[in-house]
């Protein structure tokens, strides 16, 4: 995962943020999924980051034929979009708000974003870690 920064905010600054949980949906027709990552976007801190963890055994239990390396490649693409680098292709070249918009858009692929949620935090990076441990691991 990429390094995370706090954008120079003080500890008492309360920042609004949005997040989506990334779901691995091995068979869209069965509507079964496993949470594999979280994307947090905080406009005021210029923060867009993903954290993810793939539980290969649990995913294989949902679909033994699932290409787990492809799931990890898709999550690496999301990292590139968040970082704004070449791994994110054309989407990575956009401003952070547009990159988050791209990542939160519904799609019918193996890796899908859940609904957008929001909150307030003093530290977006710490919030990302908290959401990952609460919703994924």
Describe the structure.
- The chain is α+β, with helices and mostly antiparallel strands.
- The protein has one domain (about 15-135).
- It contains four helices and five strands.
- Strands 1, 2, 3, 4 and 5 form a five-stranded antiparallel beta sheet that branches.
- Strand 2 and strand 3 form a beta hairpin.
- The longest helix has 16 residues, at about 70-85.
- It is globular and about 45 Å long.
- The chain starts with 14 loop residues before the first strand and ends with a helix.
- About 30% of the residues are buried.
- The model is unreliable at about 1-5 (pLDDT under 50).
List keywords for this structure.
137 residues, alpha+beta, disordered N terminus, 32% helix
Q: Write the element-wise H/E pattern from the N-terminal end onward.
A: EEEHHHEEH
Rounded to an integer in angstroms, the radius of gyration calculated over CA atoms is 15 Å
Mean pLDDT: 91
How would you describe the shape? Answer: globular
Concise overview:
With 137 residues, the protein is α+β, with helices and mostly antiparallel strands. The protein contains four helices and five strands.
Question: Could you outline the blueprint of secondary structure elements for this entry?
Answer:
Layout: E1 15-24, E2 34-42, E3 47-52, H1 56-62, H2 68-83, H3 96-104, E4 111-113, E5 117-121, H4 124-135
Antiparallel strand pairs: 1-2, 1-4, 1-5, 2-3
